[in-house]
Design goal:
Layout (H helix, E strand, L loop, with lengths): L1 E8 L8 E6 L2 E6 L7 E6 L5 E3 L1 E6 L17 H12 L4 H17 L2 E6 L10 H12 L5 E6 L11 H11 L3 E5 L6 H18 L3 E5 L13 H11 L5 E5 L8 H14 L1 E5 L1 H7 L15 H6 L4 E3 L16 H11 L5 H11 L1 H6 L16 E4 L14 E6 L2 E5 L6 E2 L27 E2 L3
Parallel strand pairs: 1-4, 6-7, 7-8, 8-9, 9-10, 10-11, 11-12, 12-13, 17-18
Antiparallel strand pairs: 1-2, 2-3, 5-14, 14-15, 15-16
Amino acid sequence: MYDLVLRRALIAEGRPPVDIAVSGGTIALVGEVAAGTPAGETVDCGGLVVVPGFIEPHLHLDKALLDTLSPNPEGTLAGAIEVTGRLKREFTHASVRARALRVLRWAVANGTTLIRAHPDVDPIGGLTGLDVMLELRESQSHLVDLQVVAFPQEGIERAPGTYDLLREALRRGADVVGGCAYNETDVDACRRHIDTVLGLAVEFGVPADLHADFADDTSDGRFALAGAIADATRQYGLGGRVTLGHVTSLAALPPAERAEVVARLAEAGVAVVALPATDLHIGGRGDAHAVRRGVTPVRELIDGGVVTSYSSNNVRNAFTPFGNADMLDIGLLLAQTCHMGSPADTARILAMATTEAARVTGVHEGYGIHPGARADLVVLGTRRHADVLTDRPDRRLVVKRGRVVARTVRTTELLDAPDPEAADAPDTPDAPDVLGDDAAFRRVRAA
């Protein structure tokens, strides 16, 4: 007997739907499940697209939903850091938990089954955000896997006491050591920051995830360190265990220089996570004309062999006053801003939210849709993989470890006058499928 069977699930473009059977939180079979096979729950997907659970590899849950308390009037990176630093002084365990849990549950409803969260660790807020994330990692594990990053937003040397807090955070069980390579006073201090973070990664046996090169260009050397981080990654033997977020100033380099940095990142095994919602909102604030809209060069990174993903980063705060923790919304934004509009590009963006994000977060072994993989799945309200962005489909079902944890069913009726040419035609609306009526726009005849 299976715990769950999803019938007629479309898992690959151009191939017929298959059945997916789950036992003990793991996919047991992908193929055909014999009619009448007993199961705790059976769902007919009716040919809808089914994908592995989405992964948010870079999300600041501790700072989510702060915009209602104090917005960032200038919209700059410096302004966002200042506003957030002021608000952090008032953080309590209860206030951080309430905001973080709300957005975490949005993410789950939107199909996310793993989040890498980056709570601030610094003398302003101490370890409050980190302790909340460690608690949520346990209490919400039935809904989502949570990786906790000890993140020094205010710098390390620039904020004395942060180094000791990072060590304590790692002792308490942080999964990843974070870094903010540009938030020191000069380039030499930034390089020491990188060495400190990577040294802690080696000492505690954890991956490293750094914010880096978050600027419009490389005129300030603090924002031109991606190549140096790649070199340091090789030096510390951390290939495949270092990730960079933002990396927007890379887009400002001349093509030859950009290609050289991409090659160094690929060779060193450093991943990159694009954060377009924040990058587009913050970027170009100093430009009076021909305003730059810096997003890391996603296509070149992928073509150059760099593991590349994307994420929401912030949700409704001083860094990004938008968002719903929805990976498909962010993927659509990325497609529009990075000139990625072909079906092949859609496939790349879907991979960035799933299999590539799994590599970023180190869970790629046992991830996907195949026997032996974790049963983390999303049933989308569309019948073509090529339409997963443009359709903005409902997440009909979200499955975590073989258990349905979220369900969305939405019906829209279009009310209009009868069509004279069809007045004598019988009403034959499309039959609804098990997970909701695909004939979403149905004519209702006037009385």
